[in-house]
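Troubleshooting log. The previous structure file for this entry was overwritten by mistake, so regenerating from the original sequence record. Sequence copied from the archived sheet and checked twice against the printout by T.R.
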Amino acid sequence: MTETTSPFTTPPDDHECEKASNGYVMSLMAIMAGLPFPVINLIATGIFYFGNLKSTPFVRWHCTQALFSQAAIFGINVTGVWWGLSILFGPNELTNTFIAYFITAILFNIAESVATIFTAVKVRRGIHVELWVFGPLTHLVFSHEK
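Regenerated output below.
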C-alpha cells in the first residue's frame, strides 16, 4: 500500500470520501454476512461498483480497486473451498500441499482484510491510497477509460 499524491484534478469532498471508503467496507461487511460462501463479498463489491459507475472519478477509482482486490481473493478462496470439498466428499486425500495452500490462503485473507481496513480509513480521510498490485491495474483501466 502506498499513499500517493492524488491523480485527480480536484480534492474529493466529504461525500466522495465516504462513498469511496464504503467500497472497501462493503467487502468486509459481506465477508461477515456470507462467510462460508466466498462469492458473497465479490458480488457485494460488484454491486457497489456498478452502482457507482456514474460517480466521480475518485469514487469510481477506489470502487474499481476494491473490486480487483476482491476478485483476487475470490480466486484464492474458491480454489481452497473446492479443493477442501473434494477432500471431504471426493476421491482426494488430505495432503501437506493442501494444508500449505490452506494456511497461505488464510494469510492472504488476513493481509487483504488489514489492507482493506487501512485503505478504507485513509480514503475516508481523503487520502489517496494505492494497493501494490491493484493500484497499477486500476490506473491501467482508467487510462483506457478516457
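The longest strand covers residues 2-3. Archived copy saved in two places this time.
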